[in-house]
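Hi R.,

Quick one: here's the Glutamine--fructose-6-phosphate aminotransferase [isomerizing] sequence you asked about.
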Amino acid sequence: YEHGAGDGRPRMYTEILEQPESVDRTLRGRLDERFGTAHLGGLDLDARELRAIRRVKILGCGSAYYVGQMGALLVEELARIPADAEAASEFRYRNPIIEPDTLYVAVSQSGETIDTLLAVEEIKRKGGRVIGLVNVVGSAVARACDGGIYLHAGPEIAVASTKALTTMYVGFALLALQLGRVRDLSVADGKRLVAGLQKLPAQIGQVLATEDRIAELAATLARSESMFFVGRVRGFPVAREGAQKFKEISYRHAEAYQMSELKHGPLALISPDVPTVAIVPDDELTDRNVAALHEIAARGGPLVVVTHAGVDLGALEVERIDVPKNETELDPLLLTVPLQLLAYHAALVLGHDVDKPRNLAKSVTVE
Ligand code: AGP
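And here's the predicted structure, written out as tokens:
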């Protein structure tokens, strides 16, 4: 393990900056502009086999699980196949029902996470089909799966995962697109999404260019002992991942919540000392999300809103971070990137070793 990038900058930072190239590598050679689809040779499934899939079940741990939740929504939206994500660490300890027409997807940067590996082995033992979304070529999870999608993010050293996660998201988008195009997703929609995916590397670069502003907000958030990260539907796994990154390296308490669930309990905690980072994309749910922001503001809760330029927050007094708009289904990726920088700069301000957070290992390979 070599600490730091060798140029004095933490590995996590260089890995955040590498994301335009890593996402570009995940996409390379896999998009079909003519038919508006993706080609994933590693799946080893023909159109008939892809059409026979009735359910998609995604398994991963920690941030890979949260990206899995983003992936499940993509599969449901683009392919209209019921899909969900579960922590592999929970799945393996129950007695899961393995169905022959379910496609199981194991997602892991390292490919060595013991809970994910044992979940794959349990599925295989019961005759299920598992594909991997894995970064490390030839790793244990990749070998145990029936096929899969390599992420090509490049080596990820920092404990806090960044570039692997954005490439996982792209891997799910490619899978959902291919599953959708053998079903009812139109060629026009397929082409729209292909164009959206092609725009992502440059748009990630645009988010990274707003680093100074994000660093200012991070310094303010770092003063709070406790905060919320909230989002709805597509925004909720983004909030979960944002909170995870923040607590991992800043050691601040950051709790992710579904926007509408706030009023069922945690709203009691909102006060001028407890800020909320809210994910409010420009989509069919914007009005509902803005209404929830009013409820937080009315309790004196400071707000940092990660949103799109088109979203009108009216008279609300908030700090906002605008990210570029892509196709609505693909928005979660660009909403995630500022949260990485937010966590990174908060940890720097607090003087923590961002590459080696206390109590954590890069991959959890023992039970
Ligand atoms: C991410 O920042 C975390 N360090 C952690 O949650 C990680 O995503 C998890 O342990 C899974 O690792 P894997 O992708 O290598 O399986």
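The chain has a mean pLDDT of 95.

Cheers,
M.
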